[in-house]
Amino acid sequence: MQKIHRSLVSTLLFISVSFSVSAKDVTVMISGGFKAALEKLAPQFEAKSGNKIILISGPSMGKTPQAIPARLARGENADVVIMVGDALNNLEKDNWLQPGSRVELADSSIGMVVKQGEPKPVIKTDADLRNTLLQAQSIAYSDSASGRYVSSHLFKKLGIEDKVESKAHMIERIPVASEVAKGHYAIGFQQVSELLPVPGVAFIGELPEDVQYVTRFAGAVTAKAKNGQEGKALLNFLSSAEAQNTLRATGLRSVTTKLPVKQHDTVQ
């Protein structure tokens, strides 16, 4: 009986040691729009694979040192990057990514928030949205793809570019909703998936469809990945059918078709 017991203990120890030796840390540089979804899905991937996900947050673009391209340029390590599609294209052109490793993950629309407790404006139509923006004391938008669209295209489409220029402000690096929650700005625009996790704000809704801008999120394995195989397995999991309910619950849209040209990778 003691021999059987010792044999069982030895087997369990061998399995435990083998598992710990084979487990890998998968380092992911990720922009805010997909972060909430990955945080919810990470435990499921880690339980299935035995690997651990290490998150490094940063904008997909912009001039801040925390931006993903800046992090890679100064030598920070990552196995995977998950970010806005056009910014990922730029990394691919500059040979930061393993060829053929890109995986389309989700689409993200732009929404609007106000501080919790404040009156909720209506933005169901272009006229509603125009009126809301004209009446707002201040407007905040991000320094990433959604913000570039708001500042460079949305105001112009609504015919109010000159009227809101002095009260519209770009927020670098930090979530726009967090600034609205503090009362620094009356309304804020960002991708829905970045607005929903922030406490202290009320989500008003998405932009009207005819002035909406949908951002594609995608991921790829970096050219200098230490655990590239594990990174690709993570991307495949995030794009799988079993991940879709969680993606949608965090404000993202499942990738069903290629985005129209006017919405896909066009904001510079």
What does the model show?
This protein is an alpha/beta fold and 268 residues long. It folds into two domains: 2-108 and 215-249, D-Maltodextrin-Binding Protein, domain 2 (3-Layer(aba) Sandwich), CATH 3.40.190.10; 110-211, Periplasmic binding protein-like II (D-Maltodextrin-Binding Protein, domain 2). 40% of the residues lie in helices and 21% in strands. The protein has helices spanning 2-22, 32-49, 68-73, 85-93, 126-135, 145-157, 161-164, 176-181, 192-195, 228-238, 244-249, and strands at residues 25-30, 52-57, 80-84, 103-108, 110-115, 139-142, 168-171, 187-191, 201-206, 215-221. A five-stranded mixed sheet has the order 2-1-3-10-4. The protein has a five-stranded mixed sheet with strand order 7-6-8-5-9. Strand 1, helix 2 (32-49) and strand 2 (52-57) form a beta-alpha-beta unit. The longest helix is centred in the N-terminal third of the chain and has 21 residues, at 2-22. It is elongated and about 60 Å long. The relative contact order is 0.20. Keywords: Signal. This is Substrate-binding domain-containing protein. Residues 1-23 form the signal peptide. It holds the Pfam family SBP_bac_11. InterPro entries: ModA/WtpA.
